[in-house]
Amino acid sequence: MSGDTPDGSGNGTRVVRAGRRPEWTQGIVSAPVWRASTILYESVAHLRASAAKDTHHRLFYGRRGTPTQWSLADALTELEPGAEATFLYPSGVAAIAAALLAVLSPGDELLLVDSAYDPTRNLSNGLLKRMGITTRFYDPMIGAGIADLIGPNTRAVFLESPGSLTFEVQDIPAIAAAARARGVVTLLDNTWATPLRLPAMALGIDLSILACTKYVTGHSDTMLGSVTSTAEHWPALRDTSFQLGQTVSPDDAWLGSRGLRTMALRLDRHAESALTIARWLKTRSEVAAVLHPALADCPGSEYFHRDFTGGAGLFAFELAGGGEAERAALIDTLDLFGIGYSWGGFESLALPVDPARYRTATRWNRGPLVRLNIGLEDPADLIADLERGFAAWAAAAR
Ligand SMILES: *Cc1c(COP(=O)(O)O)cnc(C)c1O
């Protein structure tokens, strides 16, 4: 797996060191929580000199951050080879919205992957539509075929890989190359893989988005998002985000930095346990398919093996029959899996998912799906819990 290189470039080393500039930490191991709204200046001349447009990494006014936020933003930039800078947001959805608003204008067309996170679809069908931006949804498996959809008004292609409900892995380099050849911007929701598993910019992506709520914070206690940008798109992203008034509390940024230090370790464990459980599910007669990017059931798993340096803890499986009641019996019986939205925390979750109603460019006609967030519990305990769930599923079907 990833991060085992002995030269200091391994993931564990990278997340421990990232963003800890001495001028921000002042000798303390972790950048402390700097709370601020007003910043006091020494003189009018100092005030005037500080009012320059680009206040990146300079104390100016609380909304533009303090070393607490800069340290986390910088860490995320360091983890993404080819990146210029990162802007933080109060949620993943806020990050997606700012990134899209930074690149799109009225009259533009957005190509949005049909497997996208539902709130991303809602943004496109809601606010973006009201602004006169049209969205065309495309098949996640389109690959280089995206070129055929690019028209004179196409300004951006949005990818999410793997899809967070259905796990199709996209051919990111092919899509990015086709877009770049036509001057079209690419945005990737990289929440599942994080830059530790998928270096987005190295594959040709312009703007890489994370719901840091998930793996970066890692403890299901913080809402946080980020967009990491190439130099070309950074001014637009920064200016749009400033205009939108986006800012993150120093406490949340601090929790993000706190989580980041263990992210490589957690991801390795999440990935290993998830793969163990996915392989076990493959052997079960109750299961029709396991939608885990590393397994052949999952569309695009060849791209996973080609482009990703490791896995994560989120995947889904398709039940071999039954309906809503049987699926609910399975999930309700589980003790170690909570029932709840979001994922990427230390605790396991099970969720019934019904992607068919979100699709417009493609059809989804598989059986009942259950999405699992595999947490940091012992996989043998999780398997025993799932065994009990399957017994309840079978009993409900009788
Ligand atoms: C959760 C999630 C988001 C949104 O993040 P929030 O912090 O909950 O707003 C975006 N994309 C994906 C793939 C997600 O799973």
SSE diagram, text form:
Blueprint: H1 11-17, H2 22-25, H3 44-50, H4 67-78, E1 85-89, H5 92-103, E2 109-113, H6 118-130, E3 134-138, E4 154-160, H7 172-181, E5 185-189, H8 194-197, E6 207-211, E7 225-229, H9 234-243, H10 250-260, H11 263-282, E8 287-291, H12 301-307, E9 314-319, H13 324-333, E10 349-353, E11 369-373, H14 379-397
Parallel strand pairs: 2-3, 2-4, 4-5, 5-6
Antiparallel strand pairs: 1-7, 6-7, 8-9, 9-11, 10-11
Helix pairs in contact: 4-10, 5-6, 5-9, 13-14
The protein binds pyridoxal-5'-phosphate.
Task: Name some characteristics of this structure.
398 residues; alpha/beta; Aspartate Aminotransferase, domain 2; Aspartate Aminotransferase, domain 1; 14 helices; globular; disordered N terminus; binds pyridoxal-5'-phosphate
Structural class based on helices, strands and sheet pairing: alpha/beta
Strand content: 5-15%
CATH class of the largest domain: Alpha Beta
Instruction: Tell me the radius of gyration.
Output: 22 Å
Q: Return the average pLDDT rounded to an integer.
A: 95
State the CATH superfamily name of the largest domain: Type I PLP-dependent aspartate aminotransferase-like (Major domain)
CATH architecture of the largest domain: 3-Layer(aba) Sandwich
Low-confidence stretches: 1-6
**Topology order in helix (H) and strand (E) letters:** HHHHEHEHEEHEHEEHHHEHEHEEH
Number of strands: 11
* Heteromolecules bound: pyridoxal-5'-phosphate
What is the count of structural domains? 2
Shape: globular
Give the helix tally. Answer: 14
Task: Summarize the amount of helix as a percent range.
Answer: 25-40%
CATH level 3 topology of the largest domain:
Aspartate Aminotransferase, domain 2
Strand order of the largest sheet: 1-7-6-5-4-2-3
